[in-house]
């Protein structure tokens, strides 16, 4: 909870004042402060949004403000605890509540709603849970929903077929669906996510659909791999099965824009032998040239 809240506070106020944020330094400060708190028997140290907002409203812009707060707190503890005992607890609650209300940015929420309704409902759900159940429950639910949303995007990523456009013939992305091809006998397919167990079946299914519904018999498929940086074990198994199926159908698969990290993963999963080292390329144009050469060779009697 401390890490989550402190990170959110740091990012929010760093963005507001156009300052560079070093998350590692923030975490280092937290663990050092909490280690000192544990050894000295003091309260847990946290990056409090409300206290930070109060400091900013008071004009705090540097660490001098923190030293000033320390001195003031020390003076209060030494000389003014007696008068403070008559201060009603609701006064402190009212101050924190007023500061927290001032941190709610309705315009930002409306902007999120216009641009990303999913994020808007996530933020609104988190706010409701914080009000109804508490901060810890709200943060945990926000983390769970965010992870679910991320996995959902990775499970069903954007896919596209690259097609020539205009007089120059430059390639443009068209959302993948049956009936598309790059040129007769050739499809350039882009899968916009890492390949892992949750989406590898989608990858294979899309490739087979493009093959079955293509206007002309497909001889080569070029996978544009720039969005793919990682392959897990299950995805490697599915890719091997797909390559075997394509080979039986007489279709050759090339991989363009293969990063060193992706190639290392392919080596680790023993995919290079199944794909063929000659079918892996660091650039898309070289993969495309090899695929067109393969089509021409197959067409030559």
From TrEMBL:
Key word Transmembrane helix present: yes
Record's subcellular location: Membrane
Domain STAS: 176-291
Keywords from the named record: Membrane, Transmembrane, Transmembrane helix
Membrane-related topology note: Multi-pass membrane protein
Keyword Metal-binding: no
Segments crossing the lipid bilayer: 64-80, 86-110, 122-148
InterPro entries: SLC26A/SulP_dom, SLC26A/SulP_fam, STAS_dom, STAS_dom_sf
Coiled-coil residues: none
Main location: membrane
Higher taxonomy: Bacteria, Pseudomonadati, Pseudomonadota, Alphaproteobacteria, Acetobacterales
Protein's recorded name: Sulfate permease
PANTHER family cross-referenced by the UniProt entry: SULFATE TRANSPORTER (PTHR11814)
Highest taxon in the source lineage: Bacteria
